[in-house]
């Protein structure tokens, strides 16, 4: 008998650390803007809100806990959504900086990149003639010579200090097939237990390309390594690949992630005016596919989260 497909968890990554203010006037930069867009995304149907912080003075990425504190508690008070704090930060942050707020907040969920990698959007700099802020051009161009670091020891440390000590569970961000094998290593070592939430990411330079065939590769590899019933699969398509790959993934039984961190657009040549617009679009697609969207509490049950009230914010 065929297994009945579970409800679909919609995650929304509201701002990230990759895009810069010049790239879109709708990218939220201040605590007020981030809080507003996150709350609107939750109201539109996002069960999980993936959050980064920006310096409100010029929009550059920041790991400052004081900035996070200006919007994270507000989002918690206004929504029932699962709050997911990045441990990725940006390629320019140290591990200590990236963990500073998560260790204070002890959230239900954090993102965790499953390996060191080249991660870059530097070719985009060639398309921009005028920048809004002095920091943006060297920030984007400089990605060509930077590596995002997450060594095995780094990951082991994060699993200990956030997972074991804080009860936080993880959105395991897998940018390539090797990242699935890295995750399997930690499962084999007894450092990670299910249900796993695997965010499979396509279309980032330095990671796996956005070819549809790669989605099958990641899904079948995860099946072999973990067993279909031991993990929850999710799909993130970067840039113009967002909606097409998410639709394909949903048909295959995956969960989905949208948001202005992942794509600035709603359609070809059309900037999204908010992350909520992308949430509403993917929700319409899911409705047309006769797939039900999970509520935040249903997502908590599916992922084994500790609960909204067992956090420190």
TrEMBL record:
Co-factor(s): Zn(2+)
UniProtKB keywords: Metal-binding, Transferase, Zinc
Alphabetized InterPro entries for the sequence: Aldolase_TIM, BKACE
The protein's name: Uncharacterized conserved protein, DUF849 family
Annotated organism of origin: Noviherbaspirillum suwonense
């Amino acid at each position: 008998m065929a297994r009945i497909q579970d409800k679909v968890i919609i995650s929304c990554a509201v701002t990230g650390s990759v895009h810069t203010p010049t790239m879109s006037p709708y990218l939220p930069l201040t605590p007020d803007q981030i809080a507003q867009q996150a709350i609107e995304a939750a109201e539109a149907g996002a069960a999980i809100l993936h959050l980064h912080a920006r310096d409100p003075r010029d929009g550059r990425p920041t790991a400052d806990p004081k900035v996070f504190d200006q919007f994270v508690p507000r989002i918690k008070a206004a929504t029932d959504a699962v709050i997911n704090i990045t441990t990725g930060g940006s390629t320019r942050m140290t591990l200590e900086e990236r963990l500073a707020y998560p260790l204070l907040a002890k959230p239900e969920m954090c993102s965790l990149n499953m390996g060191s990698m080249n991660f870059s959007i530097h070719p985009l700099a060639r398309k921009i003639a005028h920048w809004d802020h002095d920091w943006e051009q060297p920030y984007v161009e400089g990605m060509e010579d930077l590596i995002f670091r997450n060594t095995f020891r780094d990951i082991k440390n994060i699993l200990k200090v956030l997972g074991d000590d804080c009860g936080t569970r993880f959105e395991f961000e897998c940018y390539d097939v090797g990242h699935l094998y890295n995750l399997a290593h930690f499962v084999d070592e007894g450092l990670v237990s299910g249900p796993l939430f695997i965010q499979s990411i396509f279309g980032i330079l330095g990671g796996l390309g956005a070819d549809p065939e790669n989605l099958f590769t990641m899904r079948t590899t995860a099946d072999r390594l973990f067993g279909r019933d031991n993990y929850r699969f999710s799909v993130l398509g970067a840039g113009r690949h967002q909606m097409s790959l998410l639709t394909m993934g949903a048909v295959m039984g995956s969960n989905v992630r949208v948001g202005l961190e992942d794509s600035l657009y709603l359609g070809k040549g059309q900037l999204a005016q908010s992350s909520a617009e992308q949430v509403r679009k993917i929700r319409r697609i899911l409705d047309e596919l006769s797939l039900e969207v999970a509520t935040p509490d249903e997502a908590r049950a599916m992922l084994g989260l500790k609960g909204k009230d067992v956090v420190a914010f």
